[in-house]
Design a protein that fits this description.
Elements lengths: L10 E8 L1 E5 L4 E3 L4 E2 L3 E5 L6 E8 L7 E4 L2 E3 L4 H11 L5 E3 L4 E3 L9 E7 L9 H16 L6 H8 L14 E4 L12 E5 L8 E7 L8 H11 L1 H23 L3 H20 L10 H17 L4 E4 L6 E5 L2 H14 L8 H4 E3 L2 H5 L5 H5 L19 E7 L6 E3 L15
Parallel strand pairs: 7-11, 17-18
Antiparallel strand pairs: 1-6, 1-19, 2-5, 3-4, 5-12, 6-11, 7-8, 9-10, 12-13, 14-16, 14-18, 15-16
Helix pairs in contact: 1-2, 2-3, 5-6
The structure holds adenosine-5'-triphosphate and ligand DP6.
């Protein structure tokens, strides 16, 4: 394995991966173990400057077992999804040589070397912000770099898919399609980049993290129940999504915002309709989610053409995609009018990510929030304000795929291989 008898070396890689939000949803599997979907899906990758996972992976002959720490706490790697990803990557490792450090690892050695993994999400884990997507994409990407895997990004996406379906789409930046594929072993169920983030860089994304007390049904069990009981889901997968995928690809190619927004909104609504059509029904959105939908729908209707698209995953958080910066500032003003912060919240923690939008919207203090006029489209029927119903907003944009970071960013200590 290593030259000589020195077993003190540690080899490590640190990487960063983005999260993603689907605009044509994945909901339903045809194979639970391989994680093969019943339809294609399309997502946008979110800027890792605002939402990302950072993962450091290391191998050393002195590590006694595989170990992982998530946000500083040790977690078990025993689950089938972690095991599948590690097994698939290990079997694709290639020879590695660093003469300076005296490290020489042969292809077959990767199976014997234990790994240490430390990962950190710069946003809340398991809060409906797709931490599993960024997390498994980062795990697969960083272990693949460490083990000198030569496979292309598409093949890595098929491995990340086995950690969490939506994770395969986080292997690329910009606009990404997950092709469901036909092969029973899943080899063609991979992510494909449709366009880079630079292709349509006017889009601005505002996420409303909606306060929610109850624990929702996980995506994994929710979609299993929908496949078993919802006739609407089967109709959606067979008849509706294939056409929408073609239309969405066309809308992205032409930067056609009205088509993009209409498709994203109807698809999110149909996904939630499938959840309601499940027996027993699954409720992911709440009253606040519904209020946000009607705010956007009213505005879009008044303008005569969509200004903003909305989409909701398996939870109440709204992801709002504005057609440009100017529309995003107007959107923020409306959102802060309807959903001002609770009295004890300070404004600088109420909007995170790209905070410069606050200033552009003319909002610097709580007084500016209180002075916001009611949106013109509701002037005859002013709704009540809902302070505290939104926990906070995140302003972001489209972003890049995974990258390797320098060793200074490592989460594991270079000498001990333990979390810093
Ligand atoms: N950085 C990470 N590295 C590896 N696995 C992670 C990471 N972050 C999250 N996970 C895995 O994802 C699980 C959380 O996924 P879950 O689907 O419950 O929440 P979510 O992805 O944040 O929300 P949602 O899927 O509703 O958008 C964690 O329990 C863990 O197994
Ligand atoms: C509603 C969704 O976010 C569902 C995501 O489901 P997951 O990828 O979290 O499910 P598993 O494959 O079981 O891990 C829609 C989407 O991202 O396409």
């Amino acid at each position: 394995m290593a030259d000589g008898s020195d077993k003190s070396w540690i080899l490590m890689v640190t990487a960063q991966s983005p999260t993603n939000i689907a605009v044509i949803k994945y909901w339903g599997k045809r194979d639970e173990t391989l994680i093969l979907p019943i339809n294609d899906s399309i997502s946008v990758t979110l800027d890792p400057d605002h939402l990302c996972t950072t993962t450091t992976v290391a191998v050393s002959p002195k590590f006694e077992k595989d170990q992982m720490w998530l946000n500083g706490k040790e977690i078990s790697l025993a689950g089938g999804r972690f095991q599948s990803c590690l097994r698939e990557i290990r079997s694709r490792g290639t020879d590695y040589e660093d003469q300076e450090k005296g490290i020489s690892i042969k292809k077959q050695d990767w199976e014997k070397l234990n790994v240490h993994i430390a990962s950190f999400n710069n946003f809340p884990t398991a809060a409906g912000l797709a931490s599993s997507a960024a997390g498994f994409a980062c795990l697969v990407y960083s272990v693949a770099k460490l083990m000198n895997v030569k496979e292309d990004q598409g093949q890595l996406s098929a491995i990340a898919r086995q950690g969490s379906g939506s994770a395969c789409r986080s292997l690329y930046g910009g606009f990404v399609k997950w092709a469901m594929g036909n092969d029973p072993n899943g080899s063609d169920s991979i992510a494909i980049q449709l366009a880079t983030e630079a292709h349509w860089d006017e889009l601005v994304i505002i996420i409303a993290v909606v306060s929610s007390r109850q624990k929702e049904t996980s995506s994994t069990s929710g979609m299993r129940e929908s496949v078993e009981t919802s006739p609407l889901l089967l109709h959606r997968a067979k008849e509706v999504v294939p056409k929408r995928i073609v239309q969405m690809e066309e809308a992205i190619k032409n930067r056609d915002f009205p088509s993009f927004a209409k498709l994203a909104c109807v698809d999110s609504n149909q996904f939630h309709a499938c959840c309601l059509d499940t027996s027993p029904p699954i409720f992911y959105m709440n009253d606040t989610s519904h209020k946000i939908i009607s705010c956007v729908e009213k505005w879009n209707r008044t303008e005569g053409t969509p200004q903003v698209a909305y989409t909701f995953d398996a939870g109440p958080n709204a992801v709002l995609i504005a057609k440009n910066r100017q529309v995003a500032t107007l959107l923020l003003q409306k959102l802060l009018f309807y959903f001002p912060p609770a009295s004890e919240t300070d404004l600088s923690s109420y909007l995170i990510g790209d905070k410069s939008i606050l200033k552009e919207a003319g909002i610097e203090t709580m007084k500016d929030v209180e002075a916001l006029p009611p949106p013109p489209e509701v002037k005859d029927n002013i709704p009540s304000k809902n302070a505290g119903d939104v926990s906070y907003f995140i302003c972001t944009r489209l972003g890049r795929g995974p990258v390797v970071l320098s060793d200074e960013k490592a989460l594991l200590h270079p000498e001990t291989g333990l979390p810093k």
